[in-house]
Amino acid sequence: MTDAARTTFVYVTFIRTTPEKLWTALTSPDFTKQYWFGMHQESDWKAGASWKMVFPDGRVADAGEIVEVDPPRRLVLKWRNEFRPELKAEGYSRCTVEIEPVAAVVKLTITHVMDRAESKFIDAVSGGWPKILSNLKSLLETGEVVLKQTEHVG
Amino acid sequence: MSEDAVFRALADASRRQLLDRLHRRNGQTLGELCEGIDMTRQAVAKHLAILEEANLVATRRQGREKLHFLNPVPINEIAERWIGKFERPRLSALSELKRNLEGEDHD
Q1: pLDDT per residue over B44-72, tens digit each?
Q2: What percent of chain A stands above pLDDT 90?
Q3: Interface pTM, i.e. ipTM
Q4: In this complex, do A135 and B87 lie within 8 Å of one another by their Cβ atoms?
Q5: In Å, how far are A11, A87, A113 from A125, measured between CA atoms?
Q6: Most CB atoms within 10 A, among A67, A98, A108, B82?
Q7: Could you tell me the fold of the domain covering A7-153?
Q8: β pairing state of B65-70 and A74-81
Q9: Under an 8 Å CB criterion, which residues of A touch B?
């Protein structure tokens, strides 16, 4: 945020898993529901494809598109909020997901940027990301049975 | 990365002060973090390295600058350990549901 016209947050967690399993956890709707407060994503996960985050009742929470996709290493999404007018008005944010093996664990880095100072959108998501990442870590590290299943799916 | 490293890093008022500064304004360089602080540049750099080691601070390169960001994820994990009593059973319940739906044996 040295750049006054930009708000950036960076979230990092280390998870005992493999990049492939983490990628599946990040992109499969069944998995996402388990750590993202019941919400799931809809996308073909190809560059240029549309992307949506959907509430359990079917309403669209966020929408945007896939900017870059390089499984199981890197994903860049462009998205904006769709259900709170004051957040939607800020336009699209850019969210970069990086997966990097470090010794026996995997480092997951989420960088979320909005090209404006004091972004209300970034402020709104900043409360959610740590919880989502803690849930994801807990699910991947303790939910052994779930991991066995992803090997079949993925 | 370990929980001990997180607690050790947080057990120092100067390091908490640096986290407070990043909480007020995220993404600062070493130089910015040194402004108006009663610590040598060397001490600030050392504290930042300990915070980064504990994953409480994440860094990104932007051009020639290295920016420091407060990473609240380990603090959330500490909170969930003692506060979020209801989160874990919900996760295991969902795993159970998924297992049942996908027809996995229980043993």
Answers
A1: 999 999 999 999 999 999 899 999 999 99
A2: 64
A3: 0.80
A4: yes
A5: 11, 10, 11
A6: A108
A7: Alpha-D-Glucose-1,6-Bisphosphate; Chain A, domain 4 (3.30.530)
A8: unpaired
A9: 1-3, 7-14, 30, 33-35, 105, 109, 111, 126, 129-131, 133-135, 137-139, 142-143, 145-146, 148-149, 152
Give the residue from chain B lying closest to A102, CA to CA.
Answer: B1
Domain boundaries, chain A: 7-153
Q: Where are the beta strands (DSSP E) in B33-83?
A: 57-62, 65-70
Q: Write down the pTM of the prediction.
A: 0.83
What's the mean pLDDT in A35-51?
93
B73, B87, B91: residue with CB nearest A130: B73
Per-residue confidence (pLDDT) for residue B82, from 0 to 100:
75
Give the whole-angstrom CA distance, residue A27 versus residue A77: 12
